[in-house]
Amino acid sequence: MRVINVAAAQMGPIQRADSREAVVARMIALLDEAKRKGADLIVYPELALTTFFPRWYMEDQREVDAWFETTMPNAAVQPLFDRARQHSIAMNFGYAELTPDGHHFNTAIMTDRDGNIVGKYRKVHLPGHVEYDTERSHQHLEKRYFEPGDLGFPVWRNLGGIIGMAICNDRRWPETYRVMGLQGVEMVVLGYNTPSVNAQKPAEGVTQRLFHNRLSVQAGAYQNSCWVVAVAKAGVEDGHALFGGSLIVNPDGEIVAEAVTEGDEVLVVPCDLDATRFGKETIFDFARHRRIEHYGLITSRTGAVPPE
Amino acid sequence: MRVINVAAAQMGPIQRADSREAVVARMIALLDEAKRKGADLIVYPELALTTFFPRWYMEDQREVDAWFETTMPNAAVQPLFDRARQHSIAMNFGYAELTPDGHHFNTAIMTDRDGNIVGKYRKVHLPGHVEYDTERSHQHLEKRYFEPGDLGFPVWRNLGGIIGMAICNDRRWPETYRVMGLQGVEMVVLGYNTPSVNAQKPAEGVTQRLFHNRLSVQAGAYQNSCWVVAVAKAGVEDGHALFGGSLIVNPDGEIVAEAVTEGDEVLVVPCDLDATRFGKETIFDFARHRRIEHYGLITSRTGAVPPE
């Protein structure tokens, strides 16, 4: 048994007017609750420090950049790092990253128990669009404000296991999990902000959208025999609803915990990393079963090309 | 609307002593029922003409070869082809193929409405093992009797759509669907023979095994926005139980029909290929969203390699 007690720290809405300091105070309260529940690792959502600003169309780059962090930790976030080190809890959370040389990424970091940043991931699969789209019920401008991640899908040894990160829309892409699976990943942590309404198909409904969330996460866990911890920012931000449904899935693809609210809520589950071994050594023993000579299109072709 | 009425023709057990002719008579009865229900395409299981012989350990190659077909159609199967042409129903079924130059494959073919074979697929992901394994509750010797498929994952234009094939264990591998998705596949048809007991983990239970079946098929359908028709050979063959659970899944990953027996059973569902378009043009518009520069390990590395 190699158990990591994981806290999925779902966060309720963050309004546009909320300060970083107010958000960090909420994150610290979740961290304290996670500590009381025995957590070793806490997983917060994507863009945990701010509202989901890509829903707002902005043309002034200074207005855009105000949503980004230029250093991490910075003064507003330092109290969270201090408390995490005090509690000896490792963390994963997302934020908008502006690099010294002017690049914008949708980023997540992972710390060790001492509050040191040991891993950084930049979101690869950016959903949405670049220009204002009059045909959508709301905007989703991630492709406007962020560049695609440039770090690939690394994994890190932390807390005695092999842990990888992903962000939001990445979870719908089997490539995300597989690239980490090929590095022996035992746990994938990811945060998301997902609108309750499909801007291009309002009839879809939140039930189906929660189903797609579960399906993607469960398949990624099963097909790579790893734990997946998927954590929402949820609730209504300035009139725009995000669904909750944070969940922890075991290496059999089974949901072992799922949030029931759309607010701040902590789920803690003991995740035995040795439970990943059976799948990795039998049906998903990649070395014995994968046939890469037939997978060429996956890396040689980006878009679909129908046959003649 | 581009509707294909698809018949998932689940088959109950085939005993070792059953002749090809007896099996073909059952397949014709299912075809007749599919015709009455308006089918355009009928999908039968993997290794539809025989018992699931890879459960039997054999050393005499002549005994092995007796389970294989050296031509298709052949005299035993010709009546099925004749009836399908008469009904103007396209077919997909699996069989063990022995080529003129002595290669053994776990194969499936697809015909058009005129009974012409328009596509052949050879199973890529062979499960199981090569030598007798005393630690298993039963044998699963596909790696002994078959070579991995050498045809990749092609798709074909048939019945006004783009259709691909897979077989059994292929359905658990996201690469299977993705390679076809990159060719614009609108419907994947696949047959399976899956033991109700995990030979290496009897405690798993059939409920969990059916869950993994559904999860794999539903994720493949959703993540490539295509229909998937997955058809079992089910029931007890000479004391060995195979699960049923044949299912038809829409491009949203939702189950629209599922078998309720472990015997011969036909499900017919009208599948609108235009229902694949929304997903392919939005969230799974591969050309806009995939980032192949980060997928390299999928085709460059077969087995998992943990980090230092």
From TrEMBL, chains A, B:
PANTHER family in UniProt: NITRILASE C965.09-RELATED
One of the record's GO molecular function terms: hydrolase activity, acting on carbon-nitrogen (but not peptide) bonds, in linear amides
Name of the protein: N-carbamoyl-D-amino acid hydrolase
Keywords assigned: Hydrolase
PROSITE patterns in the record: CN_HYDROLASE (PS50263)
Keyword flag Hydrolase: yes
One of the Pfam families matching this protein, by short name: CN_hydrolase
Keyword field contains Cell wall biogenesis/degradation: no
CN hydrolase domain location: 4-275
InterPro entries hit by this protein: Aliph_Amidase/BUP, C-N_Hydrolase, C-N_Hydrolase_sf
Organism of provenance: Bradyrhizobium oligotrophicum S58
